[in-house]
Every structure is written in C-alpha cells, then in structure tokens.
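COMPLEX REQUEST
Ligand: pyridoxal-5'-phosphate
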Amino acid sequence: MTDVHFNKEKGSQLKLFTPGPVYVPERVLKEIAKPNDTHRSKAYSEMHQMAAEGLQKLLYTKNECLIFTSSATGIMEACVRNLVEEDEKGLFFSIGAFGDRWYEIGVSNGKTSIKEGVEWGKAITSEFSQEALSKDKYSVVFIQANETSTGVYNPIEELAPIIKDSGALLCVDATSSMAGVKLEVDKLGIDIALASVQKCFALPPGLAVCSVSTAAFEKAENVKNRGLYFDLITMKKSHVAKYQTPTTPPIPQIRGLTAQLDFILNEEGLEKRFERHERLAKQTRKWVHENDLEMFPEKNYESNTVSTIKNSLNLDIPKMVSMLLDKGYRIVNGYGQLANKTFRIGHMGEIQIKDIDKMLKVLADIIKELK
Ligand SMILES: Cc1ncc(COP(=O)(O)O)c(C=O)c1O
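STATUS: Structure written out below.
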C-alpha cells in the first residue's frame, strides 16, 4: 500500500476527511504564524480572555472555560484526578474505544472505577443509565457525547438529567463534536465538558479546552493528589486572576483558537455551523445507502461529525484508503477492533457540502473498481 511522504516545501497537500486531526484553513494557519508577546503580558491576557469568553458562548455556559496544553486525553485524566476522592467510585459509561480509555485512565490513577458498557454501535439509553446508576453510589460519571470509534452520538440531553439526579458530577467528553454539535452545558448541568481542538474546531493539534462548573471546582479543592500540571485549582487561580495559565502555553495555538472562535461565533454563526455538520452527515449517509453499504451505528444515534461505515461489501479497506490517497484524499480505517470491519469518514470542522460530494464521488468509483 502506498502512502504519502513528508512534503518539506509545501506541507501536506492532502484533503483530509478524517476524524482528527482535520483540514486547517489557510486563514487559521496565517493567524498562527503571527508574532506574539509573552504569556505574562497584557496582550496575552487579552487574547486568552477572548478565547475563554468565546468558549463560554460556544458552550452556552457561564462556567469558567480553561485552556490546557495537551490533547483531550490530558483533560480526561484531569477529570479523574481532580474529582474522584480515594474512598469514592467513578462510573464510566463506555460505548467504544474512547469510553474504554477513560475507564483505563481511572484505573491507572488508582481510582475505584466501574465500567458500564454496551455493544459497540449502540448508545447508552435512559433505561440503561438508570439501571447502572441504581447499582451503587457514584461521585462522578464519565461519558462520551460523540464516540469517534463507533460513530455513535449518545443521547446526552436525555442522559444528563438522569445522571445529575443521582447526585454525581457529570463529565462529558465532547472531543469530536464540540464546535460541530450543540452542547448546552448550563441547561444540561454538565460539570466538565471537554474537547481537543484538532477536530471540529479545525485547528492544528496541541490544545484542549473545557468548561468547569463551580461544583466541580469546589469538589477539586478537597481531593488529594490532584497532581501538578493538571491541577484544576492552580489553573483556575491563574485563569480568574489574570487570564493566564500556570505554565507556558502554546501561544500561537491560542491565537489560532481565538481567531477560529471569532469566525465560528461571528462569521459562520453557531446555528449555521451545527446545521452544516448535520447536512454533511446526512449527505454521507445517503451516499452509504446509494453505494450498497450500511452505517455501523444503530439508527437514530449516528454521529453528525464522523460516519463509521460497515464493510458490508467486504472491501479491502487498506487498499481502498490507499487508492483514495492517490487521488489526494485521506479517510481512515476502523478504529482498533473495528479495523477492516468498518471505515470512517470525518466530516467535521470547515468541510463544506461541495467538498464531501466531490470526495464521495471519487470514493464511489474506487469502490466500483474494488468490488
Ligand atoms: C471521543 C474522543 N475522546 C478522546 C480522544 C482523545 O483525544 P486526544 O487525541 O486529543 O487526546 C479522542 C481522539 O480521537 C476522541 O475521539
């Protein structure tokens, strides 16, 4: 199978239809290339404040929004370390690879971690969550909004009130849906909503963001061994007092985030952005059926940002991906245990309908050739 070499002069010329990292528009790359003052300067604080306030609008929340120098996994670990006390239990709902990862983070940090999962391709239902929550007393519940391995979107609007009723804090991993799918943090009572920026934000990797409720900060105050780099209380102090971070952040990336939030909120508009992602997903699902393929997720729970497609035609997926690469497009194989049984098309960030139509047409021809 061929792959594409490092292009020292021009950078990658591929059109990415991946579930992250995704295509980054030229205007964002230019923004990131601008010079900056230091992270202890007034100019930085002003920029950081703009990003934080933009995130609050994006997430429909008054909660503080923090910026982490890490990918999303760093915040997933921060949630576990800051919110689960030694004598408490964390409940991890898992519907795929990233739910399993959060549970493993709980275990590897020595926290009492309980996993409640469903068959891959399915979502957590209200009944399932009620049943799981009734088994024990959990102090924190961890769940994905969008599970990127299976392409399933959990019914988070139905689940959040049930979880909150149990008295637990609620952490939502919205890594592959934040800035692509509406998430109303305050309405749903989400204590921490997190994501990295190399997905629906259409930024290069290197940053992660989250909203943190007052209840979550209050809880963290009393949790021992929160660690140093991802201590929510230390981060809150710098953030609230100065709109800064305790250690040196990737300042150019934050410049990019500020610009992209401005674009999302003031140029494209939130509703239009969410609607575009919905249309991209519908268009992809239509193509799936027209090409005698099937969606992997159960009906009504399909993601608007990544389509996981069953390999119902028994195609040679690595070959298909490689043939598409020769045409200048990248899609990806299934994740982990779903490799070769599924393949995934990312339609998140700045991808437009005409872009996906063009790529899907090329992919349809490749599939015909492979059949
Ligand atoms: C749902 C979900 N959670 C967590 C992660 C981990 O994100 P990161 O690679 O930014 O740590 C990913 C990455 O694809 C993801 O899709």
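REMARKS: The chain has a mean pLDDT of 97. The chain has two domains: 15-24+270-370, 27-266.
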